[in-house]
Specification:
It contains 3 helices and 8 strands. It has helices at 24-38, 120-128, 131-139, and strands at 43-50, 64-71, 76-83, 93-101, 145-150, 159-164, 174-178, 184-188.
Length: 189
């Protein structure tokens, strides 16, 4: 009696869904766990998106973020990054960076974790709804938008700075949005 060999046809490879972009609030809390291990008195310090060419930003979300956390007890600031992909020298997932001395005399100020209630996407929508922003976007339709989360001496409440351009230093138009209430604060030229 001859045995018949049967083999299953190869299964088609499942297409992997592209990784989802992440808003600033979500990214901040993805890194917060490791920051809390580093220092029990940890506070937020700054958070900025990291653009990656293969994953363009969309709807106030980016593929990677770098956030800094402050510890008064350590007198230090430590950075972490979070990325949805391993690209351009950025590690996928949460990855710790260097520790630096905390400069309390500088413009940037630590802030309580509970102050972060508004995501980057919501802050951008608030900024885009302003008539001045609509006029700027009409004149400069291809200008990229980025954000920065921080508390400064000038803006003592935690705020998102919605920046038309690639950085605050090169931009001639940005909008400050309160990161706790989501309300418009001011326009910077």
């Amino acid at each position: 009696m001859a045995a018949a060999c049967t083999s299953e046809p190869p299964k088609p490879k499942e297409k992997k869904a592209p990784p989802e972009m992440v808003g600033g609030q979500s990214a901040f809390f993805k890194m917060y766990g490791q920051a809390r291990v580093w220092a029990q008195d940890v506070q937020g310090y700054q958070c900025i998106p990291i653009p990656l060419a293969a994953h363009p930003a969309a709807d106030g979300k980016w593929p990677a973020w770098r956030c800094q956390y402050a510890s008064a007890a350590k007198g230090a600031v430590k950075s972490w990054s979070f990325s949805i992909a391993e690209e351009e020298g950025i590690h996928e997932g949460v990855f710790g960076g260097p520790e630096e001395r905390l400069n309390t005399a500088g413009q940037m100020q630590p802030w309580p974790i509970q102050a972060l209630k508004v995501d980057s996407a919501a802050a951008i929508e608030t900024a885009k709804d302003l008539k001045e922003a609509k006029a700027y976007m009409a004149k400069h339709p291809d200008t990229p938008i980025t954000v920065e989360l921080a508390r400064t001496k000038r803006h003592p409440n935690l705020r998102w700075r919605v920046i038309w351009g690639t950085s605050a230093s090169t931009s001639n138009f940005s909008v400050i949005v309160d990161a706790t209430t989501g309300q418009y604060v001011e326009i910077l030229h």
